[in-house]
Design goal:
- This protein is mainly α.
- The protein has helices at 2-9, 12-19, 33-37, 39-58, 62-91, 93-96, 99-124, 132-157, and strands at residues 27-28, 31-32.
- Strands 1-2 form a two-stranded antiparallel sheet.
- α5 packs antiparallel against α7 (99-124).
- It starts with a helix and ends in an 11-residue tail after the last helix.
- Residues 30-161 form the DUF2231 domain.
- It holds the Pfam family DUF2231.
- InterPro entries: DUF2231_TM.
């Protein structure tokens, strides 16, 4: 592993990449809004999946109403987080230059599309939750994991969105 670190530090492509600015373009008091805004859609995607399982087990129409609200709110909150994330991707060269940024963006846009389809299904035909809504909820959960994995790579491997003071 030490050999890999030596190789990376002498790699002109990596050195050039690391020179690019990664400071958030959309932040409040230095805290990136995208990182703050993704928590609600993530929780609501998994909440919708849980609600669908409860409906499957109980057949109680209450869970159909809850699923309509959680899926719709997940979609709207996902769009808001996506707008901020897209702005960061477009405006910050150090983010735009990383492959993980593009993988994260593609997974997130796909996730938002699936969340929108899931909400639309519930609006148009609430009884279609089983099996189609449940399958869309499972797919949304998987896509949340994929998008989160790449988002985590940006934070933990590339230091995107981290506030580090000179004394650290």
């Amino acid at each position: 592993m030490a050999n890999q670190e030596t190789t990376d530090s002498n790699n002109p492509v990596i050195e050039k990449l690391e020179e690019k600015d990664t400071a958030s373009a959309i932040a409040v008091a230095g805290h990136p809004l995208h990182a703050m805004s993704v928590h609600f859609p993530i929780a609501l995607v998994f909440g919708t999946l849980a609600v669908d399982v409860f409906y499957w087990w109980t057949a109680d129409p209450f869970w159909l109403r809850v699923g309509l609200w959680t899926s719709g709110t997940a979609f709207v909150a996902g769009i808001a987080a996506g707008i901020v994330g897209t702005a960061e991707l477009v405006l910050v060269p150090g983010i735009r230059a990383r492959v993980a940024s593009w993988a994260h963006a593609i997974a997130a846009v796909t996730l938002i599309s699936v969340a929108g389809a899931n909400w639309g299904l519930r609006l148009m035909e609430p009884s279609a939750v089983l099996p189609h809504g449940l399958l869309l909820s499972v797919l949304a959960g998987i896509l949340t994991g994929v998008a989160g994995w790449h988002g985590g790579k940006l934070i933990f491997d590339h230091g995107i969105g981290l506030m580090v003071s000179p004394k650290d």
